[in-house]
Write a structure and sequence with these properties.
InterPro entries: Glyas_Bleomycin-R_OHBP_Dase (IPR029068), Glyas_Fos-R_dOase_dom (IPR004360), VOC_core (IPR037523). It is a single chain. The chain is an alpha/beta fold and about 140 residues long. It is about 20% helix and about 30% strand. The protein is built from 3 helices and 8 strands, in the order βαβββαβαβββ. Strands 1-4-3-2 form a 4-stranded mixed sheet. The longest helix is centred in the middle third of the chain and has 13 residues, at about 85-95. The mean pLDDT is about 90.
Length: about 140
């Protein structure tokens, strides 16, 4: 049996760590457990979620140019699961009212979820979803 790796954490690289921290805390509801100006870590079951200053990552990688260049397009998506399809609609409206940018209002998808898309303050687009219950009509 070979060695394997496990996804332990996701670090969102940000140009404005305090602004993005405020969004993830105040809009998405994550509890901050470490906040150091250039680094924030949130309480989360399973996978560690953190924010780190992109320019400082250049320092860790011998000045790799990709950490200081302006990003174009989407590089990642965080998927936030709700308990029910009804919760998706309520939480989406709540997120947008608190400053998230609405991208696509929640709707029932062909893959069996109710899904909406929103952007955080740095323009990263994420999904909010719930698995639709199986009923006689869609079984």
């Amino acid at each position: 049996m070979g060695m394997r790796v496990k996804l332990e954490g996701i670090t969102v690289l940000a140009l404005d760590v305090p602004r993005l921290t405020n969004f993830y805390r105040d809009v998405l509801g994550f509890k901050v457990i470490i906040e150091e100006g250039h680094y924030t870590e949130f309480e989360n079951d399973g996978v560690r979620l953190a924010i780190f200053a992109a320019p400082l990552m250049a320092d860790n990688t011998n000045g790799h140019h990709s950490f200081v260049e302006e990003r174009k397009g989407q590089a990642f998506e965080l998927n936030f699961e709700c308990a029910s399809p009804e919760d998706v609609y309520v939480m989406y409206d709540d997120f947008v009212s608190k400053g998230a940018t609405g991208i696509t209002a929640p709707k029932v998808t062909s893959w069996g979820h109710t899904t909406g898309f929103f952007a955080d303050p740095e323009g990263n687009i994420h999904s909010l979803f719930a698995v639709n219950p199986v009923t006689a009509e869609n079984a």
